[in-house]
Amino acid sequence: MSTGGSTRAASRTTSGQAPAPRLAAPSRAAGLVVALVVLVAIALLSIAVGARSIPLGTVVDALFHRDGSDSSYVVWSIRVPRTLIGIAVGASLGVAGALMQALTRNPLADPGLLGINAGAATAAALSVGVLGVTDLRVFVWFAFLGAAIAGFVLYVIAGRGGSSPVRLALAGTAVSAALTGLTQVMTLLDTQTLDQMRFWTVGSLERADGGTLVRVLPFLVAGVVLALFLARPLNALALGDEAGKSLGAHLGRTRGLTLLAVTLLAGAATAAVGPLVFVGLAVPHMVRAITGPDQRWVLPYCALLAPALLLLADVLGRVIAREEIDVGVVTALLGAPLFIALVRRTKAARS
Amino acid sequence: MTRTLTKTRAAPRTAARRSVLVCVGLAVAILGFGVLALGTGSISVAPLDVVRTLLGNGSRITNFAVLDLRLPRVLIALAVGAALGMSGAVFQSLSRNPLGSPDIIGFNYGATTGGLLIILLFGGGTLAVSGGALAGGLVTAIAVYLLAWQRGVRGSRLVLVGIGISAILQAINFYLIVNAQIADVARATVWLTGSLNNLGWSQFWPLVIALVVLIPLLLAGASRLDMLEMGDDAAAALGVRVERSRVYLLIVGTAACAIATAAAGPIAFVSLTAPQLAKRLTRAAGAGILPAAWMGALLVLVADFAAQRVAGASTLPVGVATAALGGAYLGWLLWRRR
């Protein structure tokens, strides 16, 4: 988590100079195991901590012996689904953020910050308010549609040369502001929509259950797998369009598939828990500090460490205040200072 | 921008004349639309009777409908719109980016947090809420400025830091609302969308007094703003004290945004669109504070008129209409600037 490393990662994406990876290949593989252990540890913490805290020993016991006891009930019916949703959503947003930063060559890219998550939320709100959709299985498709449209708009803006981090971030903020306004119209016109959308406007793991997980998981897995296949062509594109082409990467196809992966990941994650900001921003920076810029390492590390961060934020929200603080609020409070630190260190913001 | 700059340098007098013409044209449009807004509603008053009532020769019923019921709302719409337009012109010029308006980079979120804190924690009255919003906006501006400082402040860094701060403020606003008493939340939610409902003369006068103080301060900064827009080095060469001017403009620009937010809540997109639309009409270089003020006033007036009538019985907050108008405009702007 060295901040000096994230500086280098940030300047790499803007100036094109790749730093040497911090770790050699065997230790990068070992690091991946460490990341997995960290994730498992935080997942256990997330199962143990809450309105009714359960000792870790009892948690492990309840996980292996599903009996009728109170602890077993709390663990299996509330904490485990919530933790699994957190892992799935966190992995998706982390990978989506890494993909977007690679695609736009912009260190400040994040599906929440650039309005992709807001696009998904707005489309889903419209489907609830206008079409009366209540089934997650149906409105996840609207979330995809919204994420895809927002992603396409952003890509069109960023696609033509000369898109600076400022331009992209502003365009994303502006697009999300317009979309949030649209969601507001729906909720003001129809209180029933308001009621359904309320937990969504901020992003919360509280209402997500096992059913939610089952319904969005196929899309999330598809997105992550697609992302792993994109690692190599994205590495080629990182050298610039011309160099990438000469290395045999198909520019159009790689960009199209990357947008598709981002849409799947951000759309399904938003459908499950609402729009979250900054999860996809922070983790790729920390990861690049460990692994260097090679996407074949960046993506799997992100898939393990982003959920760890999201679960940690969720646990923090449960313990720091008497009333639970939604995870979307915590990620914003944690992510924004990091964003500002990145802004202060990024060369691109000095233009 | 370079194109318009050179054009203006070639013929400054024509451009100035054009700006005056645009302001006059917008004022005429405001008068016409104002008469329409004052005359329509559940009690219908003919345009000529509206004018007669305004001049003091109305019947009792037209006096009630036009002067008591609708005039304060129309005047508040104009004042709020003008303040937002001017604030947007200052910020877009400071950040040298047409998207760098206070509603995008988060200064009105700061004002909102200030107002919300007063409503939710202290249950304060209108004046206290206004004070809270003003304080919130100014504290935000100072924080953003300090965080963006690195041997001077660049427009782009100011904008990006503003985006980060606005994310924090939005999170705080959300947390405040979720954990408040339901009666306060209802009041706060309406205010949060930006609404002119239930506003009267008692909200109008503080707003006007604030504007009377602010407009000369804004206009005094306008020439320095135009020079800053050419670049820091060029401005310094012309004798402008760059950082001091930037702080001054940031403060008066934030104050304009905050007093509008204090009166009516954060009305989205007016400060983004008004200066840009005005600029397209005047084709002048520089910030164009006055044309932006007229344009902002017209936009809020029209948006409020539409919001009151579009949804049948329920009166939508004006912020909803400006968000819809602004969203469409924004799409076009982004498309054009690809």
Automatic annotation (TrEMBL), chain A:
CDD domains: TM_ABC_iron-siderophores_like. Residues 1-22 are annotated as: Disordered. The keyword Methyltransferase does not apply. GO terms for molecular function: transmembrane transporter activity. Keywords: Cell membrane, Membrane, Transmembrane, Transmembrane helix, Transport. InterPro entries: ABC_BtuC-like (IPR037294), ABC_transptr_permease_BtuC (IPR000522). GO terms for cellular component: plasma membrane. SUPFAM superfamilies: ABC transporter involved in vitamin B12 uptake, BtuC (SSF81345). It is a multi-pass membrane protein. The keyword DNA damage does not apply. It is found in: Cell membrane. It comes from the Bacteria. The chain crosses the membrane at residues 29-51, 80-100, 112-132, 138-157, 169-189, 216-235, 256-278, 298-316, 325-343. Residues 1-17 have a biased composition (Polar residues). Belongs to the binding-protein-dependent transport system permease family. FecCD subfamily. This is Transport system permease protein. It comes from Amycolatopsis methanolica.
TrEMBL record, chain B:
This is Ferric enterobactin transport system, permease component. It comes from Amycolatopsis methanolica 239. It is a multi-pass membrane protein. One of its GO terms (biological process) is siderophore-iron import into cell. It comes from the Bacteria. Belongs to the binding-protein-dependent transport system permease family. FecCD subfamily. GO terms for cellular component: plasma membrane. The chain crosses the membrane at residues 20-45, 74-92, 104-122, 128-147, 159-183, 203-222, 247-272, 284-303, 315-335. The lineage of its organism: Bacteria, Bacillati, Actinomycetota, Actinomycetes, Pseudonocardiales. It is found in: Cell membrane. Keywords: Cell membrane, Membrane, Transmembrane, Transmembrane helix, Transport. PANTHER family: FERRIC ENTEROBACTIN TRANSPORT SYSTEM PERMEASE PROTEIN, FERRIC ENTEROBACTIN TRANSPORT SYSTEM PERMEASE PROTEIN FEPG. GO terms for molecular function: transmembrane transporter activity. Its main location: membrane.
